[in-house]
Description:
Layout: H1 2-42, H2 47-91, H3 93-98, H4 102-132
Amino acid sequence: SEMGLAMVQDVPDITENGYMRLLEIVKYVGKLVVSSYFIVGENPDAGLPLVIAGTTIVAYVSQNYTKSLQYMEDVSDRQADIVEVMQEANQNHRLIADYFMRPQVQAVLEDRTQSLTDASLPTKGAAIANDYFPGW
Length: 136
């Protein structure tokens, strides 16, 4: 279950949120360095505002990184819980049917699904907040 979930979900997530984000950060740092070079070349007094802007960006990213990472881990854990319930129900479907346990299994699945929904809301809120943060 964990291996299948890792192949289907975690590998694309690591690629998108890890490697591609790293390239995006390198792109923004490059833009900042090049634009700062030209701005300071034209107006040496502009160095302090550039340092303040760069410091603000670094503080925002570092403060939100751990929070966003925790949100994504919570969502991943809830998804793994749902996969676990579904695999267990699939393996024991005959036993569940013979002992009329379908309502109980359904209730467990509904609880896990609601837990996933509750864990997904902060992740979506953080993504929206990050979209509104000014970029370079």
